Amino acid sequence: MTIITLDAVSKQFGSNFAVRDVSVTLPKGSFTALLGPSGCGKTTLLRLIAGFEQPTSGTIQFDTRLMAGPTLSVAPEKRDLGIVFQSYALWPHMDVAANVAYPLRARGIGRAEIEQRVARALDMVSLAGFEQRSVDALSGGQRQRVALARCLVTGTDIILLDEPLANLDVHLRAAMLDIFADIHRRTGATIVFVTHDQSEALALADRIVMLDHGQVQQTGTPQQLYAEPANATVAGFIGRGSILAAQAATDGTLLAGRPINARGTGKGPVQVLVRPEAVRLGDTGIAGQVARCRYTGASYETVLTLASGETLMLDTPNRLDIGAAIHLTINDAWIIPG
Ligand SMILES: Nc1ncnc2c1ncn2[C@@H]1O[C@H](COP(=O)(O)OP(=O)(O)OP(=O)(O)O)[C@@H](O)[C@H]1O
After folding, report:
1. Which residue's C-alpha comes closest to atom 29 of ligand 1?
2. Which protein residue has the closest C-alpha to ligand 1 atom 22?
3. Residue 253 CA, ligand 1 centroid: distance in Å
4. ABC transporter domain location, by residue (predicted)?
5. What is the pLDDT of residues 147-180, one digit of tens each?
């Protein structure tokens, strides 16, 4: 298992910073999501770790080995890592076994050992018995698992995944989430994956590095980013919720003139994040009017308009009439840091 350390890494394309001054440590055996909106620099960061891009400044280390720095850049094939591209990059004219065996052949490993290792890797991705199938005859999800097996077969302890669930339908995504979690458990590899989908990051990762405009906004566990977002960008990107104006004082926090339970610190006018699960309807409390009510299966996602004109989202068990006047209490809010 390998620790990956990026220190003050920047990557410029012309005058544009794709990645700016990124310092993160990805612990041994961690499963990290590089998360952020389109164009935030997450793919560039993955390519920097892989060695397909060279940093303009800063250093990248695997354990104590310098991989990239001002005067040095180790070639991708010498970094001893596995990467699964979004396109899967399989050889169409080879069968499944030959695709998976490819990196072992390139290393001159003997036939018997190759067969054994290919069988083990295919078993890990639930494709045992698919050895002789042509990759052209496989579904998108199966192709992705072949690409994953090809990456696992070398026994690498760093695995990089580029948008691993992007090309899969909803049901396959759920199945692949289980496979990735299982592979992480079985290999103990340090895994880094790129996603723009916050629900994927929450479901899969044990650490999230949230990026915007090439810069790290917050690094932490999914629970930390959900419960205690470092700024409004993270608060707005992760999970559902509403950002509202409030007044914080030493003796409590007021929203719409009423006391609410707020965590975090701040003084005077602040912004608070309120998750839907923290809002309760009642006979008294903050006044609001139903603006929207949408069926989601388990409940109704309801949006209220408050007297301030701000909107607040909550889940209700029943459909509420548009325009209905209601009251609510807020039993948890997070004061978004300055
Ligand atoms: N080879 C390149 N040449 C010039 N600009 C580039 C190059 N690669 C990336 N960029 C720019 O760097 C910025 C970050 O791009 P990057 O692909 O890393 O973002 P991303 O977060 O992965 O986006 P997406 O989710 O849309 O793939 C963008 O402004 C992009 O246009």
Report:
1. 39
2. 43
3. 41
4. 4-238
5. 999 999 988 899 999 988 887 788 888 888 888 8
Q: What is the pLDDT of residues 106-153, one digit of tens each?
A: 888 889 999 999 999 999 888 999 999 999 989 888 898 999 999 999
The pTM of this model reads 0.92
State phi, psi for 313 to the nearest 5 degrees.
-100, 140
Whether ligand 1 lies within 6 angstroms of the CB of 13 is answered as yes
CA 196, 202, 205, 210 dihedral sign is: positive
Between CA 332 and CA 330 the distance in angstroms is 6
Whole-angstrom distance, CA of residue 303 vs CA of residue 312: 6
Q: Give the separation between CA 331 and CA 121, rounded to whole angstroms.
A: 49
Give whole-number Cα distances, 123 to 1, 107, 118, 126, 325, in Å. Answer: 22, 22, 8, 5, 58
Of 97, 84, 112, 110, nearest to 168 by C-alpha is 84
